[in-house]
Amino acid sequence: MLASIKDKALRELASDAFARARVKNGLVTPSGRLSKYDGEDDHLNIKGAARRLGLTPHTMRVLLRKLAIVPKHRKNLRGLRLNEGQLASVQKYIQSAYDSEEAAKRLGCTSEDIESLAARKLLLPAFRMVGRNRYTNMELDAFVNSITSPSLSDTSLDGKYIAHFAEQVGISLAEASSRILRDKSLVVVDHSSGPDLFKGLKVADAPKKHLHARLRPKAQVRDAITYAEAAARLGTKHEGIKSLIKASLIKTIKDPRHKERVCPASLELFESRYVKAAAYSPALGCHPTSALKILRTMGVLPINDWKSAGTRFVDRDEVMRITGLPSPETAVSAEWFTIKDELEEHLAARDIPATTRITSEPAIEVKATTGRWSFIVRSDQDRKLFSLTSSFTSKLQPARLRKVEKASIEPGKIWPGASVNSADGRGFLLVDEALGSETDGATEFNLVDHVITRACQLHRFL
Q1: Contacts for 215-219 with beta carbons within 8 Å, 24 or more apart?
Q2: What is the pLDDT of residues 63-80, one digit of tens each?
Q3: The pTM is what?
């Protein structure tokens, strides 16, 4: 019949009328082009229900499982359908949830602290809506009960309010909470029974007898190398180390605690045979990011040329045989290794989750194990200065730049006294050039102490 209608507008009108009637009478599933009639039969598809509530279909399914709501099939139709009563139950649950600002008011902190707790998975959100976490009384009460657990308390100690303690030590409330719940390096002395948990929470350093051996940022097991340390040593990421292990290029061993660690001998053998492709950039006269592309054109393929491999490594002998380029050797003085070792000891003593590695410049990179912040320590022998540089650029560090802009943090407040330089495109660089490079013991310790201070300042904001 529709084919006999010559006018296009009239034909589409008749087609829509038939489609709407079929949906209303439960004769067809309102999907695809018929999704605009979803709800005509007093039932909604999951996708249509999610659209009405401002959710994604995935989040809608999560809430249905959480609320034990079972969508049903309508007779002779495909697809799960929700009625108006079930949709009202989901909407009521969403309205009872808190956003980050409301949750912060209840716990007595800032919304940035709430997001940081969620990022560390100390506070689990109930669901996400419009790209933001939502929390209910259940999740907030679970967090309060976990942090005020009697097993984490010691009322015999003299404590300080957690906000004052965190400010004095130079850490965030989220980091202090992590030390209570995970590291067990802090204990709860007293807490309020009502709302505003952080305003009435007193903490103190845990007695040494209660401290557990911590594996980050520096392994406490003799002759064992953690994945984070191996990644920092090779200049790659955690996933890159795992992929090299899976490809049998690096071997692992079990430590006395039955944890899997990187075999030191295997890592040394890997370093002697392979090198990062970027290390050939000085010999090729190009930027480090372009070295791999040039080596490919010359016939050199990386040994880990697969998806999500991270940093690409090439065989030293193969590069020498095909291109004639000598193997890059980094002339690293003993002073750099001394500074690196002292930095690792001070980072572990201050419980700062970060690793250090000597780069090809040579220089020392101090990087958070989470990857949220990093900076480079360089030496200018002509000016006899050590310089510290932390980058916040939209191209290479978009996440940390976005976090600084979202929190409206002035760049000059991150590193007080450091200069703020503009970067190419959008972003900025923090540069600290106020350190003498004399090699006597006192000045060397001052450098390490200054680097630790800058690491604490970055960790507090990021």
Answers
A1: 215/259, 216/353, 216/369, 217/344, 217/347, 217/348, 217/352, 217/353, 217/354, 217/355, 217/369, 218/344, 218/345, 218/347, 218/348, 219/261
A2: 888 888 887 766 666 667
A3: 0.45
